[in-house]
Batch of 3 targets.
Target 1
Amino acid sequence: MVTEITPPGDTARTLLRGTPVVPGVAYAPALLVHTEVSPDAVAAFDPSRYADAEEALEAYDAAVEGVADGFARKAAGVSGDAAQVLTASAGLARDKGLRGAVRKQLRSGEDLLAAVHAGVDQFVTVFTGMGGLMAERVTDLLDIERRIVARLVGAPEPGVGTPEEPCVLVAEDLAPSDTAGLDPELVRALVTERGGPTSHTAIIARQLSIPCVVGTPGAMTLAAGTPLLVDGAAGTIETDPAADDAEARVAADAEQRAALATWTGPGRTRDGVPIKILANVADGESARTAGGGPVQGVGLFRTELSFLNRKDEPSVAEQAGIYGQVLEPFGEDRYVVVRTLDAGSDKPVAFATLEGEENPALGVRGLRLSFGNPGLLDRQLDAIAQAAADTGTETWVMAPMVATVAEAEEFATRVHDRGLKAGVMVEVPSAALLAHRMLEVVDFMSIGTNDLTQYTMAADRMATDLAHLTDPWQPAVLQLIAITAEAGRQAHKPVGVCGEAAADPQLASVLVGMGITSLSMAAAAVRPVGAQLSRVTFEACEEAAEAALSASDPVAGRDAVRALLG
Ligand code: PEP
Ligand code: MG
């Protein structure tokens, strides 16, 4: 949405609105990232320079080396996930299979640029067919193709260069190689025209705590260098603001954020209503990091992430070792909620996921895999029980993608048989609608707002053009959360939220106002969410919940809640 706002002096100002992802206020000139190679350079390229297929292949090899070197140099300057992403991109650029496909095209008489395109296209088709995380690598492949083409036609490589002064990065969408290694000192905010709250851009921005707005129509029409005031909580981008006002808002925001960073828990509202603040973890390392922070435990351990690159199912003993590493840091008086394998759809696991489903998001994923393969679930539950006994940590177990009361009951029986607390995730709308009956058979529920939003709004959570629908502030999604929370209140059983919604400080207050008893989130969000809750009363949270539920859309809901809570 683009709104004209009152011009101060001569300058026409505009207000763009997108989906807010990471809160924070930033003021800096726009740096537009073009992901396309200069069309003029491509038009001026004369393919007859490489009429000989072997010479053309040499030019391809040289371009690939340049691209891979660039990734490797960037990787050397960063660490952790960013370095891994860049190293993987360098490997993909040098891939022998890709080179073979290009060589075949050249030998069959294609010109150089057409051969590169056809070779990459062949791999795009294969990766897309594999679905899930492999399909996400298509973005990397297309990014690599553009970089190779740029080198061949003598144009600068597209993507993010190294900014020399503070800027707001504005792009259509960002490739993993663009976001890996961003310097938050120089990149003050991210604004993308496409992409949703679970897009790659959003995940990296959250990790780096860079204010971020995605799904912003009109962003790429901004002129390079235009001063922008980005509000990552409101989802607004104001062009040419009065400099004094903008700087004052940035300073106030920085002060507020510094105050948030000092929050030490435990989670409670200003008037003392307790809310458990928990962490989402993927493995022993992330569990140890989270365990060092002010959390009361883990609200979501995504077990399938440990097995994405495994061909065969690990033994019960090996699984118990992996789970034990996550349970270990929470031994004393905290607890860990372990989620059984959520394999399938966007997280394919070779030894569990079914091949060739027409529509994997609506297919045999999560708990449904155990219908045809109950041994898989039983062995995992044995391993979890073993890890719980080895570490002495209080362990709860929940199943993903539960749709019926019978599924909940069957799962709970298996978990109770092993002496552990049993719960189900609320990701399918049917689970929310029948929460009161599910709570008769399970000990707790945990709402996965990422999938609950996808299935309520019939909008693919990975789709880059549906950000306004894949938004947990959608009143229909909030209504289902409220129904589930109320069922928990009636049954006197805990109902938490472990999807991305819990990481949004304003939405966290709304959830608490509905009666949600725990919030589980990425470690980076723990302090901002905990601090926000400590500043509001429970009654204010209830008012915020009412306002968000009765809003006409997510924009109106956010505005109403901000007006109430400040
Ligand atoms: C969810 O769907 O909200 C959730 C927490 O599960 P995942 O993101 O792993 O699908
Ligand atoms: Mg889910």
Target 2
Amino acid sequence: MDTIIPPSRLEAVVEQELDALPIIDIHTHTFDPAFGPLLLWGPDELLTYHYLVAELFRARPDLSPTRFWEMPKTDQADLIWQELFRRRSPLSEACRGVLTVFQRLGLNPDVDTLDPIRAWFRDQSPQTYVDTVFGLAHVQKVYMTNDPLDPIEREVWEKGFERDPRFEAVLSLDSALIHWPAAVPALRALGYDVEEALTGRTLAELRRYLSDWIERMTARYTAISLPPSFRYPNPDSALTLLYTRCVLPICRERQIPATLMIGVRKLANPALRLAGDSVGRSDIETVEALARDFPENRFWVTMLARENMHELAVAARKFANLVPFGCWWLLNNPSLIEEITAMRLELLGLSFVPQHSDARVLDQLIYKWDHSRRIIGRVLAAKYRDLASAGWPITAAAIRRDLATLLSRDPA
Ligand code: RAT
Ligand code: ZN
């Protein structure tokens, strides 16, 4: 029989079990190595991550974004290193992340130059580096975000390749749906007879597009990143109509979840490109109405505004077909992960997914999981201590089982 862990040892055992847990990362922007240049890795990609680009302009308000974007990537990386690591202590979460990556790789950064680090990376091949990163992050597989309307990505899918089972596919809907009818020419070029007007034929053809690409990619779910203004019901919105009349029926037919990431205000500052997206408070009643009116669909939802997180957890208590996941992007910071994870455990027990990495650069799997594991472990240990105080016996086997429920689970 598994022995009962004394309260004073709970934190250490949770940490140990979490370190040993092979995590399933349900939302990333990284790619199977077969996608070649789409798989980003290495110090220049790490340093030019859009989270850090935003911070560069905090440090250098005088710098023109146009000038920055004209610079070669290595110069951009050098500038970010200089401004955010040399000239001031790299206290932000995104800065700390770069240092965690270097440290876990056994690299000792020289504050004056990135050259030795770049030299180390030149000796890595993408294939072996993927193994290194998955090993250090202790991640068993990741879900990509795949866009058939991206010509570079589509070419790889069309040509076909041997899949690396550690990279699951996800059909991203953003490019096809969000700015309808912007995608009409691209969809037509792929042979789908859609037109701007939302006729029966257009809806049927869009369903065919979704179905074909779910099939081709073996996509495990559909994903969409939505603005705070997204509403359902909303008879005036093409996006809402396309989502409910095309996406949801196809997800039902294919028996895959529909993932919604709600609350991004794209290009609040267009000059900063990806770094210029902001946050807005979204409408929880929309999420509840979708879960209620489409009971046969399974919804995996995250929201970008901290203000939405409590109501999302409450909504999930009302609808079994709704799974909250992750501390997304601007919420992926230790203080917020701590607060959100504790609140979710209190309201939902184990019926949510505490985190995803959102890694855009492969190496980020290392730091995002290293940092999240620590916070989630601390929060869980406190909850187990509370249970122990209530007289409940806690064993390592129970902790292992609970952790697997939280962090080694496929969206289903
Ligand atoms: O976290 C990010 O990198 C964001 O830019 C977005 O990609 C976001 O996660 C999304 O999936 O839309
Ligand atoms: Zn993302």
Target 3
Amino acid sequence: MNVKLYNQPLEQIGAELTLEFVSSKTLEAHPHHALLTQAGFKAEQEQLCALHEHRLLICGIDKEESDELYRSAMAVAVKAAMNYAYTSLKCAQYSAERFCALIEGVVLGSYKFESYKSEPKPSQLSEVIFSHENNDGSSNDFDALEAVLNRTLIIAKATNFVRNLVNQTPDDMTPQQMAVTADALATSNNLECTILDVNGLEDEKMFAMLSVGRGSAHPPRLIHLAYKPENPKKVITLVGKGLTYDSGGLSLKAATSMVTMKMDKAGGCAVMGMIKAISELELDIEVHAFVGAVENMISGNAYKPDDVLRAKNGKTIEVRNTDAEGRLVLADVLGYAQENVKADYLFDFATLTGACMVALGPYTTGVMGHNEALKHSFIEAGASAGEYCGMLPFNRHLKKLIKSDLADVCNVSSKPYGGAITAALFLDNFIDEDMKEKWVHFDIAGSAYTESAWDVHTYGGTGAGVRMTLNWLMEHCK
Ligand code: BES
Ligand code: ZN
Ligand code: ZN
């Protein structure tokens, strides 16, 4: 979808359909009030009413002060408009501060993934044009709006890039293919790219990650992308869990839980999308993105419950469940990342636990770490970017639940509660002392994928983490 901004009042813009947001407050005074009332339109959130004879699409808004409601309503409206035969849609501003949310609604809401359809259904709608003027006729600064448009488009398109990767099947997006994708991104965006294959991983003594991948016909890859502007203000390390498929391994998942596990690479895809957006925005920060791309499968050679693995930092891990594989991969990738880059901040993104969904629901990212202020800053960044985040607190008692009688640490908790936090506390074993306060772990198990549309998301990958992190970086690394 092309998104454009014109320096013209709405009436002067030539487009086949006009979109208007109407609340219960503005409904009364609407020129088509009688017609809308007759059609049963009550301005309920996301309620649509098309007045085709007037070339008008009206969309209800519950609270005029909420960016989130406008973002979501725009997504619903644009999806509806895509089902008509109009080729262009125009829309006014609803205050300059809201422009970002409207653009996100268009770009993220119009996203469709049809690579596996033999007859994709292209929409006629190809452009959405915004006026620089507000719906009440007041004016906004065009240049400021244009800057918002450019920035928001880069971030929203990077989010769709992540969705495209996540939505690919495990046989198409293997660890090797993740590496090929990273390499292509490096070429197009002028990034440095290093890939370690099995030999490289052995040289680096990354035996936890190697063990997880051992049962698969698709060998693992470690991906390192780097964006290095001159005189960066900060150095940031991003780490992503890239399980291209998680069958559970010998601790095999139940049939119904295995479906959707192609999404277990979403953390890895997210950090690739983040570095894409960062490089296109030319942010003044050095960024390193590390992805542990691995497939967790069964075979005579697969790793087992009862194995003891030695991670890159030398710690030994008792494996009691091969389905808690993400933390094993991250243990090594976090170790590798810290050894190779001295960063100001270290953030990891992982579809790590079903327990995170139990704790926070299926829409919210779990935020964990030792630095309270840093975690709070992410909750804020998430809220203003339109991503839900919730903090899950550590405590010293939970830490005891992953003690092992055999090795240094156990890969599962001895109690069935607080699983998202005990997983994060497992990762804590692989965070160097000097990085403890600089580290935040994001569990995106619930937020990264959906099988039913919600907010700006359609079926499939959501691109969770990208908007929140970009928002945080633009605010905190100026
Ligand atoms: N990839 C899963 C977590 C997951 C579950 C992500 C559902 C998205 C949706 C992870 O590897 C896993 O299987 N975790 C186990 C951990 C358990 C064995 C301690 C889980 O959550 O059940
Ligand atoms: Zn698993
Ligand atoms: Zn997993």
